[in-house]
Records
---
Amino acid sequence: MSERPQIMLVEDDESLGFLIKDTLDAHGWHVHLYASGEKGLSAFHSHTFDLCILDVMLPEKDGFDLAAEVRKYNQRIPIVFLTARNQLEDRIRGFQIGADDYVCKPFSIQEFKYRIEAILKRTVDANSSVDKSLLLKAGKTTLDVHNLLLNANGEHTRLTYKECRLLQLFFRHTGKVIERDVFLKAIWEDDGFFVARSMDVFVSKLRKYLKNDDALKIENIRGIGYILKDSSV
C-alpha cells in the first residue's frame, strides 16, 4: 500500500482512544479520532476513509446507528465494532449491520493491530486495483464511483447511491443529450410522474454540487432530457 490507509476511530473513552490511535499510527496508518457518533458521522461525510472502528456505546449516536448510516452510503468500507457488551444478540446485530469484526473489551492491543492489518490487506490492496473506469473526470471535477465521492474543483461531496448513478451517466456521456426515460429506467426502474419529479430534485442537487466547477453545466433540454456540457474540451 503506497499511501497511508485512513482510519476513522470513534471512541469516547479518551485513554483507550489515544492508545489505539498511537498504536495504529505507529504502524504506518493514519487514525482520525472522534469522541461521539455525531462527530464521526460528520467526518465520514467530509472525508474518505479506508476503515471504520466504532465503539458501540457512544454519546449522541451509538455505534450501531452510526454503522447503519455509514452503510447507507458505502457498502464496501470495513467496519469493526469495539464494545464491552458481549451478549450474543449484540454481536448478531453488529454482523447484521455489516461488521467485519466485533472486538470485546478488554482486548490485547497487539492482537487488535493484527486484526486491523488483516482487514486492510484484504480491502485496501483490493481497492488499489479497482478498475480506472470507476474514476471519472469532466472539467475540473472527478467522480469516484467506488467511494461515492465527488471532487468538484477542490469541493468534496459525499454522494448518495442514486446521486452517484446520475452523475455517472452524465460523466460517461458528456456533451450528449440523455433522454429522461434513460435516467428513470436505469436508476429508478420506473417512469411514473412522481418518480420523474423526484429526478428533477436530484438534478437540482447535482447542479449545486458542481457549482464550484465553472466548466460544467447541466442543462435541461425541454421535452427530451438533460445534457452535461463541459466547456474545458
Note: Residues 128-132 have pLDDT under 50 and may be disordered.
---
Amino acid sequence: MNEFTKRVKATLKKHAKHHSKKHMAMMKKDMMNGDTFTQAHKKAIKKVGT
C-alpha cells in the first residue's frame, strides 16, 4: 500500500484523538507493511500502550 484511502485516513484521524503520537506512528508503519487496522492497533497497544 502506497497511500491510505480517504476512509482509512478519516478512521486514523478519529482514532488519533484517543491515542499518543507514538501509538499512531507505530500503527501507520504496521499498516503500510500490510497489517489491518485491528492488527496494527493490537500491536501498538502491546508495544507502546495508548
Note: The chain has three helices and no strands.
